Amino acid sequence: MTAKPHPLFLGIDTGGTYTDAVLWSEEGGPKGKVLAKAKSLTTRHDLAVGISGAVDAVLENSGTDPAAIKLVSMSTTLATNALVEGQGGRVALVMIGFSEADLARDGLKTALGTDPVVFCPGGHDVHGNAAKLDLSGLEAALPELGRSVSGFAVCAYFATRNPAHELAARDLIRDKTGLPVTASHELSAKLGGPRRALTTLLNARLISMIDRLVAATEGFLGKRGIAAPLMVVRGDGALVSAAFARQRPIETILSGPAASLVGARHMTGLDDAMVSDIGGTTTDVAVLDGGRPRLDPEGATVGGFRTMVEAVAMRTFGLGGDSEVTLEDGALDPKILLGPRRLVPLALAGMAHGEAVIVELERQLRAPNPSRMDGRFALRTGVPDRLAAGLTGPEAKLYETIGATPLALDRLLSSNAQNATLNRLVARGLVHICGFTPSDAAHVLGKQANWDAVAARLGAELFARRRDGRGQTIAATPQEISERVLVTLTRWSAEYILETAFAEDGLDGAATVAHALVQRAVDAHPGIARFTVALDRPVIGLGASAPLHYAGLPPLVGNGCIVPEDTDVANALGAVVGQVRVSAEARVSQPKEGLFRLASGQTVRDFTDEEKAIAVAEADVRAIVAERAKDAGTDNAEIDVSTEFKVSTIEGQRMFIEAHVVAVASGRPRIAV
How far is the C-alpha of 200 from the C-alpha of 196, rounded, in Å? Predict the structure, then answer.
């Protein structure tokens, strides 16, 4: 009798630089078996190109029939990278019941930037009682906003206790503009209006990006005859359906890092470790405890913004193989600085555009004096024209000048004002800057060889002839400056790993202490007071460049560094071995004695009996989470309901204050039959 073949699972990770694919089977024991893996450059102008490059290579290398694939699961760092780099679509924020002073809280004004905001009277109190709603100002602004933004974010005062005003604004906006609308109560049940508004704003900015990713992936799978469900990794490592992720893209921030944690645990079997995942744009550091990633109870922090998204307790740093390399300003002996902005490496630009890049680099080398714009180019990202809505006159003029071929900045820019304009276009995700990066340094030293080493060497040579505070060149050769760049990257990686460890231990000033300890270790000047530091657990190094950049890590962190065999596709592997996990919440409060108010889902109901209110709340969240679990992609979810009471005792009598009811559903994703 022929044994039934094991189902095949396809994992995809779309990163800032590379798209990875892995074909995995459950055969061969608990760890399963990686049948094939491949990489392709991420193509931001058309994500399907990069996805097809990686997946087609996996199918060809394994000789797999596409129809045999029963589940496709995807992780992505696109949302994380967009927030770190300050990118995303232009959206309008609608604040109901808030004042302009609320923008100053929780970084909301900084996150909003130059995007429009509309204030409307309304909102509710802590018990869900409504103030008078007036949406006339919003309605008057919609014709203009509909032409200049890509979506809307709506946040109403105490919407978590009564979402009626958010729903009214959402329906009005959809009716008048047809654009995507995110309402804050859909994303979080937590109090804290400005931070909930921040989370909603970021979600609205990311919708078009994640929508394009899902559409590109679904379109590609359809063309290849892969009729399997598509799942996406959420920031807490759980899987959700693609349709679920499209509505709540903010929940995919830290998707890639969360998948890498799941993959790291799966590949190494380690229960306790520091996990450091280095990509093209970011380094993500987290802690494995008892085989599970630590979650951040306060919400994920990305790009300096504290959100209300439950995610792994991951610290994301703007440090990667494609980080911008710059010099410290005004120092006699300037330090090399890396990131946080990602550039297109010169080696990659040289490979894609050949002479257009090489000729300009050689021209700049012939100039008698170095320039700050040497080795720098601009080119369009290739996003749809509609995402360029709302540009100012100077922005539109400069954007028209930039094309699909890299244009040297010393030819493009004629003033500091134009440089600021260019940076705004980069922040909008409309333009890429090409320049010297650690990836170029690796090409110069022969430690990386997948792109154009000639362009990398010319870029290193231009950077090496930059001047220090004494007027001397900062390095004698392109090899020397490249070695310094790579040493700096390893050193900063150690600092960020230690900073994360200290922060998890609750140590104040974690960054300062980590910097001082690594400085002592690297510079070999222990001083009068000698001290060393050692992690209590090993580091798992992830990412295609981890073997290069983490080779010198152990003496800096005082413990070993394990780089698994399939470290280059850890995210893609983690994407296919995870589970669906969703939750729903309800609250019962007591606005006045004897009245118990239940807020669950989009409804608010009153009861005169506490036990009845709690019973209905538990039934509600069980039904809501069961439906969410189906929407998220599982048909066999296990549901756990817990209730936490807040009570006080007055003269021996129990006084009910509030009850918080939470239902969690988890299960393996459904697969094609």
Answer: 6
